[in-house]
């Protein structure tokens, strides 16, 4: 870790293993406070304004066995039903989302007290069994300053039906007091939200049922669809991530492994191949473009693990796996850089992008653990090494914070790193 970095412990958790196990930690920054949602369901608030290690100011212990998988500041005005009403207290706070039997969305005030909580299992249903991947999952949170938007889903297996994979999912619009202003239901798997002005974009990464649109843009006033888009490819895989612009959207396609820019009405403006299938040592392999961050300066796409077209195991690597690719708003490639491993999510503030480098489960190279910081237009500006894997990051105008998790690779047997929060001054 950088000499200027400092860290605070987050407790004890079982170390990650060779294969990724999905998100189980989250972090966000709000007015000098870093709020961490932990793998044990606890929420911890740390002051980050001093030059020393983050100082824990409050904690909220879990009452069950959830993990916190999403977090975002929420500083909206208290309102309901599309109209505002005055509030007797500040509306600022932080919202977290769980993967748990209840699939809770919980709003904390700046002092850690719970303002409101909502259990998404009311709509998406109870888990088919008490296993991690079958529990309700708050996949994404977003805010426009007035409302909090949440996408929750629940997965189940239906071996006695033609379509074995099934999802129940709901997009929620919450007022600052926790009132549900509207919902949008589908039988697809939402993975990402992006909100801008009066538009909310919802990316669906799997569509095994009746809903067959990888991207839906909703009106924030009432949740009605404005337009929809789909890569038009075979299979259930559709869209991995989306970022709204002033005049449209940029997204990653899991259907054809490309990045797209769409106009205000959903018409395609450009398409750039990313980790598309290619022959490597006699085998055709690809990698999903999992993330995108876009501003008026351009877009950055981040790809994931290599997979073969036939089967799931391969000894070869796609040359653009675990790669950040910078693209201009005209669709021209500017730069590319290695991100070290699988990125479970992004942290961003304007044109500065933080990409966590978790494990590369095929190569299991501990030397790549860390965080890479990129400028949207010019590329990499900073790299930070860690012992364990970085699984979550957040950026504001002063600091970068990351969550490090311990890891043990099956063919090494050594525990690397610890569960801790790192903070260091931002660069760029």
Automatic annotation (TrEMBL):
SUPFAM superfamilies assigned to the protein according to its UniProt record, in alphabetical order: Quinoprotein alcohol dehydrogenase-like
InterPro entries, per the entry: PQQ_rpt_dom, Quinoprotein_ADH-like_sf, WD40/YVTN_repeat-like_dom_sf
The organism's taxonomic lineage, starting at the top: Archaea, Methanobacteriati, Methanobacteriota, Stenosarchaea group, Halobacteria
Annotated segments matching region Disordered: 1-29, 44-65
A Pfam match: PQQ_2
Name of the protein described by the UniProt record: PQQ-like beta-propeller repeat protein
Pyrrolo-quinoline quinone repeat domain segment(s): 80-229
